[in-house]
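Sample A.
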Amino acid sequence: MPQGSMTSVLRPESFFPPSPVDHEQRLSSNFTDRCLLGSIFAFFGGAVLGGYQGSTMASLRFRAENSHRFPTTTTGWYLYHKSKNYNCMLQAVKDGVRLGSRLAGWTGGFFFLEELVDRWRCKRDAVSSVVAALTLSSIFSLKRESCKA
């Protein structure tokens, strides 16, 4: 066949050039990118969940604290709900940042510990992930038990 035939045009290399990704790394990305992106996603996930929970609890708390003096006029109800909504939004932001920061810290700690075990063992496999997860879960459990006592 001649040089410019169909077989040379349909090679996969012509459509998909080799990527500069290091496939030996976890998730095909280096440690800093993996740790940073994981922590950012964990922060936003925790912020959403913490904000929802904080807003719900603030709403119930506001209702309980003001149950003895409900408004009687339309303007009073307007101001009651306005105050309640501001209170809920403020508590949602506080709890969202708090839970998001906690979750981002634990996620960054996991990635850091996983990389530390990988470098210590000079090997990348699932054992490092399991060791990192068990270590962090043990620390979390001990921390929670010491808070209860």
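Sample B, a different protein:
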Amino acid sequence: PTFTLENLARLAAKPGVQSTLILSASDGSIIKSTGLLASPASPTSPESSLVGNELEKGSNSNNNEGYEGDEDHSKSADHVARVVFQFVAAARDFAEGMEKGDDARLLRMRTRKQEIVIVPGV
């Protein structure tokens, strides 16, 4: 919907936002991406925060600690989409387990080097 794209554009214009991703709720595939994560191997910068349909995420480091395999994981939109989709699925399972019929509405995670904000089901 138009209001979703308008909100996404507004959030993407905020200082420090590096990229936005809109993911399919059914399979986590990327519907739309902008910013640093829009290209397969983009450089990173010191600030982070990324927004998307189901997510807001950024990366500000080439440190791939905790990732297995390829060193470019922190730069790949496809990798971010996969990890976010898994995170959202786990959060939804958790919410449902806490109270039947409940669902995750906003997920925010901060690490030492990244901030990820996810808005499932928008």
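Observation for Sample B: The chain has two helices and five strands.
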